[in-house]
Amino acid sequence: LGVLLASVVSIIKGKRDTEIFRRRIATDAVFKAIAVIFMALSVVLLVTLVLSITEAAPFLNLLFEAMSAFGTVGLTTGITPTLSDIGRVLIIALMYIGRLGPLTLAVAIGQRHYPPSLHYPEERVMIG
Questions:
Q1: pLDDT (tens digit, 9 = 90+) per residue, 102-120?
Q2: What is this structure's pTM?
Q3: What is the domain range of residue 62?
Q4: 39 occurs within a structural domain
């Protein structure tokens, strides 16, 4: 999260590189931070949406349960005992994903065993 905030500050200041405490952060590290945040939010929101379909609890309580499970915090709103079997499995899976880390899990699942032999030309894209 700190890398993303530093990246936003650098963009606002018009700097080309992300810097923290007079050190330049590699672009790959910024991309990994973006990937981790995006994947974490996607998984938590997806599980929350499925829980909202399968469970009869308020959406904010389900979101709290999902965020707590992903962060392996141990906090609850008290609805965990009332979850269906599907809901419990989703919460357990979210605990494992949160403990392993979304990027670690994605790399393990989608890892290539051969180097790419084709590189496309780089293009500058205007954003914003």
A1: 777 666 666 666 676 777 7
A2: 0.73
A3: 2-110
A4: yes
